[in-house]
């Protein structure tokens, strides 16, 4: 392993350890010493990579953003139509939240007051949902006009953000079963019965798996 | 004013000031000195009423619970049918979240890890939604069987909790307009067209107003 590879590995371990600390104790109560112990490195090694707690929190946020955006982008690349893509994207993102502590902690940080306000992943998700619904309208999949489209976007954003909030109580809220149940309820409100038959509320397995593949 | 009335007034002012501090800075960063300054009382007066920060947080939670439960109970007392009652209750609770800092802060505290785990208002809301849907099924208002009922309950809980989470970004998410939009989207998924005509997604004004009346 080169020196650079070792550096990257240490930095990643610190980001992962910090994510665990932030997730468990919140930003305010997480300590740098617990983060370095968790990563199995010395306090000196931590300070070589990160100036302070704010800097490491920023790195956790950035890592979460990168993963979430990449997943949404790959899912979009495999889209069949805009509504199925929205379903597949929520399934892929839910799986990230279930499996990736950096995504969980980074999302929470990006939505809290403690950090940079220009970056709020909730708002980004909102734009993503609106865009997909506009595309679905162009594709003739959405029933109702512009007012209804706004109601639908708000309801989808609220329900999906709600799943993330509720997953703090129980991981079950972000299970494939729960996400499928959400879409079983919402899809009939979005589209006409003839379009509904071609949509899979449980997501397209191949797309979900592809979206989570590591960068090759 | 009697000594007891003055005591109650001071305690209420401390709870309100603490709610503001917890809401703005979070539990961990809120300070007792800021809370007593905000209430316009001496640190001694604070310590007469509350032993420490945990005790005052508990009082904020308890006050929020009392208000939320009372509002839901009054709305239930004015119900016409179970679905309309669910709509009216969400409107009345949304108004509490908009207008009452103690409710906002107390709800957040009750859902965080820092406080008592046996009291989680999110779980209580979940039970309330499930019960209303079971009643709606008994009243013949709900379409679909038990599996569908569980999907519906989860979707309603997720969407309403999502509104509360999103209201941290903008109060608009808990506006009457947003709550109405949510129900305009969800009600057609819950009930048959013939029942839908008799339901008001914008809530029953008299019930919402009654629910928020102070205890007489």
Automatic annotation (TrEMBL), chains A, B:
It comes from the Bacteria. The keyword 4Fe-4S does not apply. Residues 31-50 bind DNA. It comes from Streptomyces gardneri. SUPFAM superfamilies: Homeodomain-like, Tetracyclin repressor-like, C-terminal domain. Residues 8-68 form the HTH tetR-type domain. GO terms for molecular function: DNA binding. PROSITE patterns: HTH_TETR_1, HTH_TETR_2. Pfam families: TetR_N. This is TetR family transcriptional regulator. Keywords: DNA-binding. Gene3D superfamilies: Tetracycline Repressor, domain 2. InterPro entries: ArpA-like (IPR047923), DNA-bd_HTH_TetR-type_CS (IPR023772), Homeodomain-like_sf (IPR009057), HTH-type_Tx_Regulator (IPR050624), HTH_TetR (IPR001647), Tet_transcr_reg_TetR-rel_C_sf (IPR036271). Coiled coil: none annotated.
